[in-house]
Amino acid sequence: MRQPVLTFWEEESGAAIVEFAIILPMFLVFLGLAVEGTRMFWAFQSTVAGVQDATRYLSRAMPADSCSSGRSTADWNTKLGEIIRTDQSGDSPYPQSVSITDVQSDLTCTTGAYRGGLVGVASVTATLQMTFPLAGMIELAGGSFASITTSVTDSARVLSR
Questions:
Q1: Domain coordinates of the chain in residue numbers?
Q2: Which positions fall inside the TadE-like domain (predicted)?
Q3: Quick one: which of 98, 26, 69 has its CA closest to 158?
Q4: Residue 141 — φ and ψ, nearest 5°?
Q5: How far apart are CA 117 and CA 20, in angstroms?
Q6: Helix, strand or coil for residue 14?
Q7: Of 127, 130, 146, nearest to 97 (Cα)?
Q8: In whole angstroms, what separates CA 49 from the centre of its chain?
Q9: Which of 57, 81, 109, 153 is geometrically suited to a Cys-Cys bond with 67, CB 3.0 to 4.6 A?
Q10: pTM, to two decimals
């Protein structure tokens, strides 16, 4: 009776599979974190590029006399949101778990010794919300992920007309 037990403890033929089974859950968690981090970085960079494009558009589309005439940028928010939320073909570059929840624009008038007198600076702010599709897998490992909300802002001098 003692001989089979000793041979069982000395047997090493399945050691690699057991080690793999022990490491696999942690490997999957790290893989999930890498995928989520990559998606988060890509979505943030896409939002930054969209906000920069929208700010450039607003700074060139607004009349240069917007400060002296008291114009508001609120009428432009719908178009700016479209610029940020869609690509050139009109499709959304974001996955379903990433959304632009709010787009706001603002015009700040600055006085100084500038050519043309009063200078307008257009700002665009987009609020980005990301929810994690692989959050369930991360929660299996004991972590928790709520959605992340952040804002991206860019400013440019009003240059048109």
A1: 2-157
A2: 14-56
A3: 69
A4: -90, 5
A5: 71
A6: coil
A7: 130
A8: 10
A9: 109
A10: 0.77
